[in-house]
Specification:
heterodimer; A: alpha/beta; Rossmann fold; globular; B: alpha/beta; 6-stranded parallel sheet; two-stranded antiparallel ribbon; 11 helices; about 45% helix; binds thiamine diphosphate
Chain lengths: ~325, ~325
C-alpha cells in the first residue's frame, strides 16, 4: 500500500471526490494560492488541476466562508470550506452553530446541508493560543453537526471522503502536526464510515480512548506499558459525533479500566462525555475509577517549555494507567 | 505644516530601531530552534509605526495586530523585553505566554496585540469608549492590515465608533497583500479609506512610507478625536518586503514589485531627507545608528542569557 502523509491523503480524498462530483467546490483563505509552497498540504495543487470555478480563495472573512457553505449546500452544492486555524472557528461559528446545525431541523426535515468545514487544529508549533485551541468539544455540543477528528493518514482519507458524501454538516478537524506523518493509505475508493470507532491496538488490561494526534501518545505509552506486562487497548474514536458508545462500552466491559486522553483542555472537554457514558452504562464493570489525561485548563502558551507542558505526553498516560491497575 | 526637528529625530530613531530589530530577527530565524513559532515582520512598513505613534501622547493607547513590532517599539516598548518574549523566555514582557504574536504591554499603553485578524477594531472601540466615558484627554489608535477590513468585526467596530463619536483612530496599513492575496484579489475597493464613507467618518489616504506625512495625518485625526468629533480611518499605502511570515517563499509577489518598493524604503527616505536638509549631521546619524545597533545587540544578549520559564509557570496568570 502506498505511504502518504496525512496532508497528501487528504489531498487525494479531495481530488477523488472532486473528480467524481462536479457539485463539490473548495473555498477558504489560501486554499488556491497559498503563502505555503508545500505539496504535502491538503489543498496543494487543487487550483491548478480543478481551476478557479471550483477552488475559491476568499478574503479573510470566516463568517462569509461558513455562510457560503450553508447557502450553497442548501442549493444542492457540496461545499468543502477551510478554516485556517481552530481559534478562528469562533468567527465562523454563527453560521456553523446557529445555521448549519439547525436549519434542517428548523425546516422540519425539508432541507439538507451537505457541507464540510475543515478546521486546522492542534498545538505544538509555538504560535500560541490564538492559533492553537482545540475546540472539538464545542462542535460536538451542537446537535445537528457531525464531528470528525482523524488520527491516521488512511482514516483521514476515508473519513474526508465520507464527510463529503454525507448529507449533513460535518466539522472535520485536522491536526496540523499530523500533516507530515506518513502512513499506508489505500488507493482509490477507500471509505471510512462516519461514526464507528476503531480499536487501534487490542489489549486486556486498560482501555485508552483517544483521537487525533493523541493516538501517537497513546501508542508510546502502550508500548512502554507492554514491556511491564500491562496490555492497553487503544480505542480511536475518529468521530466524536455521532459517538460510538458501543465500541467504548465493549472495550471497557472487557478491561474494566478507562483512561480518556485528549489534547484539548480538561474542563468541559470531550473526555467528560466519554466518562459519563461509561458511568451510566458500564459502572458495574469498572474495577477502578476512570482517569482523564488532557491539556491543563489554560490557553496554549507560546514559549517552548510551556507549550510542552501543555501537551499531554506518554508519561502522563503511563502514570494514569498504572494508577488504575494499582486498584487491583 | 513643518514637522518639528525633535519629532523627525524621534521618528528616524524608531525607523532605524525597528529595521535593525527585525533584520536581526530575520537572521535569528535562520538558526534552527532559536525562535519559536511564526515570525511575522513589518520590514518596509516601519514608517507607519514611527510616524503614527510620533503624533500620540504617552497616555494614548494603541491596539495592534500580528505585524506589531514597529508599532510597539515606537510606543516605547523595551527591546529587551520584546526580544526575550519572542525567544519565549521568562524575562519577556509576557513571561513567555505570548511569544511574538500577542505582545501585551499595558504599561506603555499597548494592552493588546491580537493575531486574530480584525479583532483589534472592536477592542479599540471599548478602549476609546472608556476614554470618552471618563472624559480622558486621550485617544485610541487601532492598527490593522488591509485584509482585516474584510472581516465583519472591522465594519461593526467602525460603525459603532463613528456612531458614538469615540476618540479612536483606525490606521489601516495597506501593504498590498493579505496572506497570498493581492489587494484586488480580496476587495473591489481601490482604497480601504473609501470604506470610511460607509461609517460616516472621514477616510484619508497617506503615503505609508512617508513618516512625517503619517505624523501630520495622525495629528489631525487625533485633534478631531480628542475634540469629540469622532474617529478617522487613515489608510497607509505601503508594502511588505518580506513574506507574510519568515517561512513564506513569496512566490506570489513579483520580484520587480518587491524591488520597486525596496527603492521606496521608508528608513532611507527620512534619513536622506534629513541629511539633505541639514537636520542631522553625518556624525549624529552615525551616533544614532550605533545606539540603535547597541540596543538590538543588548536585547539579543538579554534574551539569550535569560532563562526559560519553568513548566509549571504555564499555570500562572489565568485569572485575576
Ligand atoms: C480571523 C483570522 N483569520 C485568518 C488568519 C490568518 N492570517 C493571519 S494574517 C492574515 C492576513 C492578514 O492580512 P492583512 O490584514 O492585510 O495584514 P498583513 O498580514 O498584510 O499585515 C491571515 C489570513 C488570522 N490570523 N485570523
Amino acid at each position: 500500500m502506498p505511504q502518504l502523509t496525512m496532508g497528501q491523503a487528504l489531498n487525494q480524498a479531495l481530488r477523488e471526490e472532486m473528480t467524481r462530483d462536479d457539485t463539490i467546490f473548495i473555498a477558504g483563505e489560501g486554499v488556491g494560492v497559498s503563502i505555503h509552497d508545500n505539496p504535502m498540504l491538503p489543498t496543494a495543487g487543487l487550483l491548478k488541476d480543478f481551476g478557479p470555478r471550483r477552488v475559491r480563495d476568499t478574503p479573510v472573512s470566516e463568517a462569509a466562508i461558513a455562510g457560503l457553505a450553508v447557502g450553497a449546500a442548501e442549493a444542492g452544492l457540496k461545499p468543502v470550506v477551510e478554516i485556517m486555524f481552530n481559534p478562528f472557528f469562533t468567527l465562523a461559528s454563527d453560521m456553523i452553530v446557529n445555521h448549519a446545525a439547525k436549519l434542517r431541523y428548523l425546516s422540519g426535515g425539508k432541507s439538507t446541508f451537505p457541507l464540510v468545514v475543515r478546521i486546522k487544529s492542534g498545538a505544538g508549533f509555538g504560535a500560541g493560543c490564538q492559533h492553537s485551541h482545540n475546540l472539538e468539544a464545542w462542535a460536538a455540543h451542537c446537535p445537528g453537526l457531525k464531528v470528525v477528528m482523524p488520527a491516521t493518514a488512511a482514516d483521514a482519507k476515508g473519513l474526508l471522503k465520507s464527510a463529503i458524501r454525507d448529507p449533513n454538516p460535518v466539522i472535520f478537524f485536522e491536526d496540523m502536526m499530523l500533516y507530515f506523518a506518513p502512513g499506508p493509505v489505500p488507493e482509490g475508493e477507500h471509505l471510512v464510515p462516519i461514526g464507528p470507532a476503531d480499536i487501534k491496538r487490542p489489549g486486556k488490561d486498560v482501555t485508552v480512548v483517544t483521537w487525533s494526534r493523541m493516538l501517537g501518545v497513546a501508542f508510546q505509552a502502550a508500548e512502554q506499558l507492554a514491556t511491564e506486562g500491562i496490555e492497553v487497548e487503544i480505542v480511536d474514536l475518529r468521530t466524536l459525533a455521532p459517538l460510538d458508545k458501543a465500541a467504548i462500552l465493549a472495550s471497557v466491559r472487557k478491561t474494566g479500566r478507562l483512561v480518556v486522553l485528549h489534547e484539548a483542555t480538561r474542563t468541559g472537554g470531550f473526555a467528560g462525555e466519554v466518562a459519563a457514558v461509561v458511568m451510566e452504562e458500564a459502572f458495574e464493570r469498572l474495577k477502578a475509577p476512570l482517569r482523564r489525561v488532557t491539556g491543563p485548563d489554560i490557553p496554549v502558551p507560546a514559549s517552548p517549555p510551556l507549550e510542552r507542558f501543555y501537551i499531554p505526553d506518554a508519561g502522563q498516560v503511563v502514570t494514569a494507567v498504572k494508577d488504575l491497575v494499582s486498584f487491583g | 505644516m513643518t514637522v518639528p526637528k525633535g519629532k523627525l529625530l524621534e521618528m528616524l530613531h524608531f525607523l532605524l530601531l525597528s529595521r535593525r530589530f527585525e533584520e536581526a530577527l530575520t537572521e535569528l530565524c535562520q538558526i534552527e530552534g532559536k525562535i519559536p513559532g511564526m515570525m511575522i515582520l513589518c520590514t518596509g512598513q516601519e514608517a507607519v509605526g514611527a510616524g503614527v505613534v510620533a503624533a500620540l501622547r504617552p497616555e494614548d493607547v494603541i491596539i495592534t495586530n500580528h505585524r506589531s513590532h514597529a508599532h510597539l517599539l515606537a510606543k516605547g516598548a523595551d527591546p529587551k523585553a520584546l526580544m526575550a518574549e519572542i525567544y519565549g523566555k521568562r524575562t519577556g514582557c509576557n513571561k513567555g505566554k505570548s511569544g511574538t504574536l500577542h505582545l501585551a504591554l499595558p504599561e506603555i499603553g499597548a494592552p493588546c496585540t491580537s493575531t486574530v485578524v480584525g479583532a483589534g477594531p472592536p477592542i479599540a472601540v471599548g478602549r476609546a469608549f472608556a476614554q470618552q466615558y471618563r472624559n480622558e484627554p486621550a485617544v485610541t489608535v487601532c492598527f490593522t492590515g488591509d485584509g482585516a477590513s474584510d472581516e465583519g468585526s472591522f465594519h461593526e467596530a467602525l460603525n459603532l465608533a463613528s456612531l458614538w463619536r469615540l476618540p479612536a483612530i483606525f490606521v489601516c496599513e495597506n501593504n498590498l497583500y493579505a496572506g497570498a492575496q493581492r489587494l484586488e484579489e480580496h476587495t473591489r475597493v481601490e482604497n480601504i479609506a473609501d470604506r470610511a464613507a460607509g461609517y460616516g467618518m472621514p477616510g484619508v489616504v497617506v503615503d505609508g512610507n512617508d513618516a512625517p506625512a503619517l505624523y501630520t495625518a495622525t495629528l489631525d485625526a487625533r485633534a478631531r478625536a480628542a475634540a469629540g468629533d469622532g474617529p478617522t480611518l487613515i489608510e497607509c499605502k505601503t508594502y511588505r518586503w518580506r513574506g507574510h511570515g519568515e517561512s513564506d517563499p513569496q512566490l506570489y509577489q513579483p520580484k520587480e514589485e518587491i524591488a520597486a518598493w525596496r527603492a521606496l524604503c521608508p528608513v532611507a527616505r527620512l534619513r536622506d531627507a534629513m541629511r539633505a536638509q541639514g537636520l542631522i549631521s553625518a556624525e549624529e546619524l552615525s551616533a544614532m545608528e550605533t545606539k540603535v545597533n547597541a540596543l538590538v545587540r543588548e536585547a539579543i544578549r538579554f534574551a539569550e542569557e535569560s532563562p526559560y520559564p519553568e513548566p509549571l509557570e504555564a499555570l500562572e496568570d489565568l485569572y485575576a
